[in-house]
Amino acid sequence: MKKYDFIIAGGGMAGLSLAYYLSQSPLRNRSILILEREAKTSNDRTWCFWERKNEPSRSEHESGMASRLTHFESILFRTWDIVSFHGTTYAGPIDMGAYQYKMLRGIDFYEFVQQELAKHPSIERKQATINRIKDTPQGGFVIADDEPYIADYVFDSTFLLKLDQPENHNLLQHFKGWVIKTEHICFDPQRPEIMDFRVAQHGDCRFIYVLPFDEQTALVEFTLFNDKLLTDDEYEVELRQYIDQFLNPGAYQISETEHGVIPMSDEAASEIPSDHIVRIGTSGGYTKASTGYTFQRTQRYLRTIVENLVKTGKPHRPAPWFARRFKLYDSIFLNVLEKHRHPADDLFTRVYTENPGRVFTFLDEETSFVEEVRLFTTMPFMPFLSAFFNVLRRKIVG
Ligand SMILES: Cc1cc2nc3c(=O)[nH]c(=O)nc-3n(C[C@H](O)[C@H](O)[C@H](O)COP(=O)(O)OP(=O)(O)OC[C@H]3O[C@@H](n4cnc5c(N)ncnc54)[C@H](O)[C@@H]3O)c2cc1C
Asked: What is the tens place of the pLDDT at every residue in 149-185?
């Protein structure tokens, strides 16, 4: 059995990003095997994320990194300077400060990375279903389609979080969206709508998300943060109602459908469960629990892992203890949502309209403690205080 330096289990967003960063590093000639069960030839999702325009962020500045602008800048589908928001007491643009909102289509990412990896003969890709991943004294051991493989490190993006522990908050972000082409002009291509709360809340957090491609084409998505998936029909009824009531589209055609479920959980993912196995992407707990955003964090974390592999030979990602406060904030926010302590549409209205610019730095976990306290003062006090004590009780007492 051939021994690889690295096996990447799952060649989706995190697996391919890791392979890409390795291919751009001094480790490019190491033997790398990517095991993925799908061909990855369809546009199975789109990723949106924000980034600072040009200047390095605070943490990059401190670490001496030049810029964290995505390496996938050349294949971005859209970039926006302004986003819109429609909440309870405000509807209009949100100042993004130093940030831009960006959209990358899955298919463009898969093709770009696969073309780049094809230039490196030391990087192999096999289409196979992984049956087992296990640590052994000799290395990380993988069985895929009954074939055994071994490596110094296995980077696993196929592990499923449990999402059922009572001490954790286990909400889901679930959505269904259509790319529609409308008869009438009804979108402003310069402004994606990041949250439009003009849908019945039913005591949950429910909103519409609109990514305009041009004046007559957009991805319109109905999204919920709660713990119960809907039937296809239920998502579609809401989508149709919103499109007819607020967009005035005339006749319209649906050209693509997107459906997704993202964990919004504060489960403590074990990123390095054993000596030769490292979990990455959703499996490694890279999803920001309070928002579901995963793409940009995954890029940041994987770049750190590759830097550490180059410097020390170890795939570690240091997590300073004070930075862990953001996990507590996420838990408190999830608790407020889970226990319906305050209407979610009002919470998001306050977050986005009373903290322009700062909210994106906060969600990137790059604010100072003083900035965080300022943001907290814009939130309703009692619901968050009750949530804080409930989180402590759940996490400590269990
Ligand atoms: C529709 C959708 C839209 C999203 N939009 C955004 C967004 O706008 N912004 C954002 O930040 N995040 C978004 N996310 C969340 C997150 O960024 C994505 O889920 C992202 O793809 C997670 O990357 P990953 O590598 O962890 O998982 P994946 O990309 O799902 O990769 C895991 C891979 O492992 C493979 N695999 C699994 N099990 C096996 C097995 N047994 N054998 C072989 N292969 C296996 C799968 O086929 C898959 O390719 C979205 C998620 C979805 C589902």
From this structure: 999 999 999 999 999 888 999 999 999 999 999 999 9
| Residues 325/368, Cβ–Cβ less than 8 Å | no
90 and 239 both lie in a single domain:
no
* 277's tokens: 């196995």
Q: Which amino acid is at 142?
A: V
CA distance 328 to 336: 12
Residue range(s) defining the domain that contains residue 214: 170-264
34 DSSP assignment: E
Asked if residue 136 and residue 43 are part of one domain, the reply reads yes
Which region, left, alpha or beta, applies to residue 369 given φ > 0 means left and ψ of -120 to 50 means alpha?
A: alpha
Q: Is 262 in the pocket of ligand 1 (CB under 6 A)?
A: yes
The pTM for the full model equals 0.94
Residues facing 24 on adjacent strands: none
Answer whether 131's CB lies under 8 Å from 239's CB. Answer: no
| Ligand 1 pocket member 331 (CB < 6 A) | no
Specify the DSSP class assigned to residue 274: B
The preferred substitution site among 221, 295, 296, 301 for testing ligand 1, maximizing ligand atoms within 8 Å of CB, is: 295
DSSP for residue 229? P
Q: What are the backbone dihedrals phi and psi of residue 251, each rounded to the nearest 5 degrees, phi first?
A: -75, 150
Task: Express each pLDDT in 355-380 by its tens digit.
Answer: 988 999 999 999 999 999 999 999 99
Classify residue 317: in a domain, yes or no: no
